[in-house]
Amino acid sequence: MYITQGLHRHIQQRPNAIAVRDRGQALTFVQLGERVARLAAALQRLGVKPGDRVAMLAQNSVRYIEYFLAVPWANAVLNPVNSRWSLSEILYSLDDSETSVLIVDDAFMEQGKQIAVQAMTVERVIHVGIDETPPLMLDYETLIAENPPVEDARRRGNALLGIFYTGGTTGFPKGVMLSHNNVASSSMATVAMGSYGADAVFLHVMPMFHLADIWAMTGLFISGGSHVVLPAFDPATVLRTISEERVNQVLLAPTMIQMLLDWRDNHPQSAALDLGSLTTLYYGASTITPALLDRACKAFPRAQFFQGYGMTELSPMASTLSGEFHSVEHQASGKMYSAGQASVCTEVRIVDENDCEVPRGCVGEVIVRGPNVMLGYWKKPQATEVALKNGWMHTGDGGYMDADGFIHICDRLKDMIISGGENIYSAEVETAIASHQAVAQCAVIGIPSEKWGEAVHAVIVLKPDADAGFDAILAHCRERIAGYKCPRSAEFRAVLPLSGVGKVLKTELRKPFQDAQP
Question: Half-sphere exposure of residue 34, counting CA atoms within 13 Å on the CB side?
C-alpha cells in the first residue's frame, strides 16, 4: 500500500471530478495531482533525499493536502507540526527528527522566522500564503511554477510515512513512526465498513496535523470523496459551510460538538441554515459524555453517528461504533456509550498487569494488535519495547469488554484516582456531573489528600446563565454514583484547557496542586 495510490486511481478514472474545495478555490483530481508532482519536484531540487523529513506548520488548507501527498511522492517522510505547541516544543520536534525542510503559512510566519534561525537541522523554510515571503524563506507558489512534475516515487509498504509527535504536555514529546501500511490499513478498515465513498463531501475542521484528520483524509483518497477545508474550527463557520457546501460528512471532537450545539441554541439565525445534507457525523479523539451524545443525536436526527477509538500509535484506529448502535435499544444496553468493537484487521484484548486476558466485564489495560500498530517511537528503543511488549500496543487506557466484544473505556490508567484504597475512574464521575442540566463541560482529577491519599476534584464549566453551586452538583452525583466516587471539592471556570483536538489537558489542571506540594 502507498498513500498516493488513491490519487492515482482517481486521476485515471475521474480526472475532472472535484477533489478539494477551500474557501472558494476548487481543484480537480488531475489539477491536484499536477501540483503535488511539482511540489515533490521542488523538494527534490532543494536537496530532499529519500527518507528525509519535511515538516509543515500551518492551519488547514488545500496546501496541507498537497504537502501530505507530495512528501511521500518525493520519497520523503512527513512531520506535521502540532500548531498548538510552544516554540521550544516545535524546535525540539524538528531537531529530534532531523527535519531538513519546513513549510509555514501566514498564521505562523513569526514562528517560521525564529525557526529559520534557531533550528539546528532545518536548512530551508518555505512560505505558503498571500503575505509577502520574508527574505529567509522560499515562496511556495514560485517553487511549484518553476519545477516540472516528477514521477511518483511510490514510497510504500513498511517504509516510513511520517513521524507524528504525540504528548508534549509533560517532558519531551515522542515521535510515533507510522508506515504507509499502518495508515492505509487503518483507513481501509473504515472504508470496508461503508464509510466515506465517492459521493462523500467531507468537511475538514480537525487540525490536519492530527492523525484523526489524516485517517479521514486517507480514507477519502481511497474512496474518491471530495474534501472541503476550513482553516480552523469555528462553530458558526462550520454550520454555515455545511449548509452552503452541502457537506454530508464531518469529523468532530466532543468539545467541538458541544460548541456547535451551544452556538446553534443561542443564535436564532441558525434556524435559517439547512443542515439536512449532513448524513454522517464521526466523533472521537476524546471521551464523549452520554448527555452530550444524546443531545447531538437529537440535534442532527438525519445523521448517522460513527465513533472511532484509538491513538496516534494505532494510525489511529482500534475500534469503531457504527451508526446502527446509536439507537434507543443500544442506549438502554449501554453499547451506544461504548467505544465499539475491534475494527477490521485489528485485535483488541483487555489484560492484567501480566498481560493475561481478564474475564469479560473486568477492568484491565486495553491492548491492540494489527497492521495499524506503529513501527515504534523515533530514537526511543526502550519506550518502544515497553509499548509494544509481545507484539501488542499497550494503550495505557483502562477499560473492560462486554459479552459481545464491545469495549468500554473507563479512564487513562495514569488518570485513575486511588482514594482511600478505592479505584475511581474519572470518566464515570465526569458522566455523572455532565448529566446535570447546568453543566456545559467538566473534568475530574485526583489531588493530594493527607487523609485519603488522593481526593476527587472536579473542574466545572457551567452553561451560559446557568447557576449551580458545589452542593447542588454533589447532591446530583450522589443520586447516580457511589458516595466515595463523588467529588470532595470543585472549582468553576469559564473554560477548560484544551489540546489542538479538543482533549482536556488534565496536566494543566493538576499543576496548581503539584506546585503547592512541599
Answer: 10
Say how far apart CA 319 and CA 301 lie, in whole Å.
24
pLDDT at 168: 45
Could you give the CA distance from residue 143 to residue 42 in angstroms, rounded to a whole number?
Answer: 6
Length of the chain: 518
Mean pLDDT is lowest, of 48-62, 68-82, 266-280, 494-508, for: 494-508
> Helix/strand/coil (H, E, C) string of 180-200?
HHHHHHHHHHHHHCCCCCCCC
Q: Residue 458 CB: number of other CB atoms within 10 A?
A: 25
Task: Look up residue 40 and give its three cell numbers.
Answer: 515533490
| CA–CA separation, 287 and 206 (whole Å) | 16
**Tell me: the pLDDT tens digits for 233-252?**
999 999 999 999 999 999 99
The CA distance from 435 to 97, in Å, is: 44
Region of 98 please: left (phi>0), alpha (psi -120 to 50) or beta: left
- When comparing pLDDT for 116 and 420, which is higher? 116
Buried b (16+ CB within 10 A) or exposed e, 315-346: bbbbbbbbbebbeeebbeeebbbbbbbbbeeb
pLDDT at position 171? 58
pLDDT, one tens digit per residue, over 375-401 is: 999 999 999 999 999 999 999 999 999
Question: Cis peptide leading into 235, omega within 30 of 0?
Answer: no
Q: Which domains does the chain have, with CATH numbers?
A: 27-178 (3.40.50.980), 416-515 (3.30.300.30)
Number of other residues whose CB lies within 10 A of the CB of residue 511: 12
CA distances from 415 to 86, 168, 410, 443, 444 (A): 24, 17, 10, 11, 9
Q: In what order do the strands lie in the sheet with 364-369?
A: 347-351, 364-369, 393-401, 407-412
Reported as a pLDDT band with limits 50, 70 and 90, residue 464 is confident
